[in-house]
């Protein structure tokens, strides 16, 4: 590594410090930290490409005693040195979280020798094989995390040698069904999809090896194991990372989770340690970022002349045909087997030879070698001076670019070459770079990839992210357009860091006009190198049609039809029996409610799922009920018009006689209204059912089987109230993957998140049914899924709150909206006609906004960000709110939100750049008592007297805690 630690700049200014945990120290259940075998490539060239043995000989389990996280000095000073070999520090452009750990051996942000990057993963894989033994290793499956650890996971699989590999992806592939997914709570981009070509890829009972670059809290691992264990249960997991930086609390959480799961969880990490942060790190970090950005603007002004000199100096990209083997996957997105690895190994020398020849033949086209370049922080200047690539996708290789005065400049020898991969495409470029390093004798070859992660750049030897190139996404990502980054590619102020040649490796899906555009990646690279080569790897598409699913489902495999029929009013719900049939069990006799604070603590600690208990039903004050009625009077016509538009769209595009299936319970009032519209406008008597879907656990498969037995699945249209960030939209798509006869598209009243194509409006406005809980939803609770109550062939459950009949406004809401059907009919039909002619392709703008808000506010968990009026209301009624973000100038639509926020002591902050009317933020670090915005108070002083009355009512419900614990105990015993 460099002589100057690439975290020193941050450490000096913020007081941030790395401390090693020492040999075998506290890595969690069945942990193994360090092997003493080293990660260096042994080339002895003195440039710091390798690093010595990391950690000591790891042992099983945890050592007791202080691990250095709570004091000023750790037990193992060398451990801190080893961490400094592995990690640098950078600043997040985020006032809520100051620092970022940057790996020196991952090959993502820091260009590194390819043998070092590959070797780091291979050594970890060999340790996993030693831990498991050959028999278990041959039955194992390796799963890597997108995007950062896709190459590391591949390399671990190489070291394991006997196991196939799959990585999660954020890129849906047309024609390939998902077999599951999970959330990465601390990432700027969170949703992971699993798209194996073989639907049974994860169905083996062998160990599952999960690979990530770093453990910061372990929550991602918990999310993954929990999501996969429900569908593909097994008795052993191995978690692998380069560094384990969890706190003792985080480690204890994983230990408890493993014990409750009834499965063994082993950890293998190259090193463990901690990051020590001073109390004022956020304030100092924010000041430092602001000062740096101001200085960067001044530098841009000062280099305007240099930019003008350098305009047009960059080379065009020459395209090289690698000769990638036909049918060989480009990576692990759909699965990568040991046989695939053998084919790749055989082809690598030929590909490296072709690439080396192309580099030698590509002319040096720099006009003035000593001319200063514009700062890498200025992508606009980069695009102005860079010549666009010739040919575009599928075009011929570009010829020589202009030198000084239009003539080619004399070629200079190759000294440093960078192979630059692309986001999730890490492994193929890594192995190509490793082979190229062998083919180019005497040339220093480095490897890194582009990334989605936004990080501040500071051109200082003691800072990990020296320079940053910014360019638009060029692979048409599912979550919409956005900036992408290439770090430490531009040389900055040090000419010795300049790469004489850059090889950009992308897959064919990403070889788009945006890649070749004047502001694209190739133009940005062109400004900072003398030779630019583009190598395109064919994007692998599974060729076989989807096969019938024979793997276990999240709840149960198809066995037999449940004997019971849908529940109907008045025995279950206050709706008329013809309005809706509930595909649920009646849990009215079971105590399921728990105080909000107790539920929030259990949910955020990972000890319970939100669907295992119910919040205590909020009973509105007289003032709040007045707000509800006023809001309904104001919005009834608007709701009726949206109901008409979405119903007409469904009838025209989905089925002339659809079977409406609402997602209980927010979707149920909308389903009833759509049924009423079809009867009013067309005389149709449509069947309508309500079904349970649970985030993270999927849809009620017993109810699905009932629907398939009684109706044509192609006629089923799933209905919900509104979209927020689209989590349930994704959940439904994943849950229905084993049932291709059902259409996973949801029809909603309002789609402010822009994540569905069947809706009545995309405006974010107050739907009064969101203002209340059961008293506007037929007196039905939200649905419950608990292992001690719901068997493999049972419907999910819910409660009927008969005792709240005096407060019920369910029929009043429906009748008030239905009464406006006639007056809005013409406008609704016109809306439906306009929608038919509109491009309604989901853009997922809401999801992108939620990720931005999660990052900006330091939450790092999209599940705690609830966008839209409806979701914000739910936060205030059911969860532990932290703060409310409101669109500046929002009017009466937010009166009830402001009232609830006042009652709970929650601040409402106005913002100018919200795509929603409001956003609710759940308390991000909840512990018992931390319910208000200050993390301590439950409500305002005026509310405390009223709260005492509520507390008395809640006392009777505290038995639920024992019930939840009993349910978890039963699941544990069953798993064992």
What does this protein look like?
The protein is of the alpha/beta class. Helix content is 34%, strand content 16%. It has 26 helices and 35 strands. Strand 28, helix 19 (727-735) and strand 29 (746-750) form a beta-alpha-beta unit. Helix 3 (114-132) packs across helix 5 (150-160), helix 10 packs across helix 12 (427-439) and helix 16 (622-653) packs across helix 17. The two termini are 47 Å apart.
Summarize the structure.
The protein has 976 residues and is of the alpha/beta class. The longest helix is centred in the middle third of the chain and has 32 residues, at 622-653.
Descriptors for this entry?
alpha/beta, 16% strand, 976 residues, 35 strands, 8-stranded mixed beta sheet, disordered C terminus, 26 helices, globular, 6-stranded parallel beta sheet
Helices and strands: which structural class?
Answer: alpha/beta
How many DSSP helices?
26
How many strands, what sense, and barrel or not for the largest sheet?
8 strands, mixed
Judging from the principal axes of the Cα atoms, what is the shape? globular
Mean pLDDT: 77
Kindly report the oligomeric state of this protein: single chain
What is the number of beta strands? 35
Helix content: 25-40%
Low-confidence parts lasting 5 or more residues at pLDDT below 50? 22-28, 33-78, 183-190, 300-312, 366-409, 545-563, 927-976
Strand residues, percent? 15-25%
